[in-house]
């Protein structure tokens, strides 16, 4: 019973983070399931089965709060589902040890870009309102879906920073669109796992426990992402991307950092992240103060002066 309660709490926390930042449900849940001895394939299958329900609820909540760009969902979700199905069917024979450090470097660079861009400049003010193109979204979806299925998580960490870095869609809609399209990824990955490994070893009780916690958190996260200022949200997401992928890179065979030096690096990253978030908070408060002190719009618009003068002359 205690295990089920713990799983429900993990599902709640993972979905709260995922629904607010557009990532980390799979990573958080997968980490817990691996620690109790589940194989990678069984772990990823369990998480993705739970995600069918959590992503459906999260997508509905984001849609209700206006956080979804449906063109982006279609253009990235369908290729993502294809990539997830392929990743699920070849997981048992695939090694991601070489790909993980390389992907971590790419995501680390994207995270640094997002953090600096939103912290220093806030929401990008773009003149180019052209939508994100298929030639960008389709390969992104395939790669993100494949990584998600093979690693038990990766749809958000790959998709969210790439869409944020494009500057063509505001942060809350990036998160809402990524969370909504993840439903297609979860369904495709689950089908691939059921074909590849069957249902033996998959605990339906564990799936339902993760699902229950995620269903409670989904509408809360969708509401939070709507009210959090984009500048602050971008700083939070950017720092989270950096911290997550720095850990993957630093502990990989490529660098192999451990012990005190590793925690020192973590401390520096967290300190910079906290400073960036504090900077964004001050910037948001300063902008609100400036808006509050701005002069009110006069009752008569500038174009109405001639009519007012004519009326006065007639009087």
Write up what this structure looks like.
The chain has 315 residues and is mainly α. The protein has one domain (2-292). Helix content is 78%, strand content 0%. It contains twelve helices and no strands. The chain has helices at 2-21, 25-35, 40-64, 70-90, 99-121, 134-151, 155-166, 171-197, 204-227, 230-250, 259-293, 305-314. Helix 1 (2-21) runs parallel beside helix 9. The longest helix is centred in the last third of the chain and has 35 residues, at 259-293. The radius of gyration is 22 Å and the shape is globular. The protein starts with a helix and ends with a helix. The model is unreliable at 299-315 (pLDDT under 50).
Name the features.
0% strand; mainly alpha; 12 helices; 315 residues; globular
Could you give a quick summary of the protein structure above?
Residues 290-315 are annotated as: Disordered. Keywords: Cell membrane, Membrane, Transmembrane, Transmembrane helix. With 315 residues, this protein is mainly alpha-helical.
């Amino acid at each position: 019973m205690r295990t089920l309660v713990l799983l429900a709490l993990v599902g709640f926390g993972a979905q709260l983070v995922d629904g607010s930042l557009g990532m980390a449900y799979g990573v958080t849940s997968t980490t817990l399931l691996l620690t109790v001895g589940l194989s990678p394939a069984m772990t990823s299958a369990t998480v993705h089965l739970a995600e069918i329900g959590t992503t459906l609820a999260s997508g509905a909540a984001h849609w209700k709060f206006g956080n979804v760009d449906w063109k982006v969902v279609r253009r990235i979700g369908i290729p993502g589902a294809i990539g997830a199905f392929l990743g699920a069917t070849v997981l048992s024979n695939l090694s991601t040890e070489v790909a993980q450090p390389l992907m971590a470097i790419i995501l680390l660079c994207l995270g640094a870009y997002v953090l600096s861009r939103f912290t220093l400049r806030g929401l990008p003010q773009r003149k180019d309102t052209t939508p994100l193109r298929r030639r960008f979204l389709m390969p992104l979806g395939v790669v993100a879906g494949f990584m998600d299925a093979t690693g038990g998580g990766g749809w958000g960490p790959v998709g969210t920073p790439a869409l944020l870095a494009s500057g063509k869609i505001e942060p809350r809609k990036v998160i809402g669109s990524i969370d909504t399209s993840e439903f297609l990824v979860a369904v495709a990955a689950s089908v691939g796992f059921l074909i590849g490994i069957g249902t033996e070893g998959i605990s339906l009780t564990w799936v339902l426990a993760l699902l229950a916690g995620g269903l409670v958190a989904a509408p809360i996260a969708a509401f939070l992402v709507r009210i959090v200022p984009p500048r602050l949200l971008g700083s939070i997401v950017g720092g989270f991307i950096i911290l997550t992928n720095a850990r993957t890179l630093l502990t990989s065979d490529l660098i192999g950092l451990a012990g005190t030096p590793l925690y020192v690096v973590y401390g520096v990253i967290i300190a910079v992240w906290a400073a960036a978030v504090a900077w964004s908070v001050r910037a948001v408060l300063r902008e609100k103060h400036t808006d509050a002190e701005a002069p009110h719009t006069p009752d008569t618009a500038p174009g109405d002066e001639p009519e007012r003068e004519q009326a006065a002359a007639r009087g």
